[in-house]
Amino acid sequence: MGDPRGSSSVEGAMRRKGISSAMVCTIEGLVSFLGSTHIVEDWKIGCRVKRTKVGTETLIVKEEISEIAQRFMDLSSSKGKQMRDRAKNLKDICHRATWPGGSSRHNLDGFIWSISKDDTK
Question: Which SUPFAM superfamilies match (predicted)?
Answer without folding.
Answer: UDP-Glycosyltransferase/glycogen phosphorylase
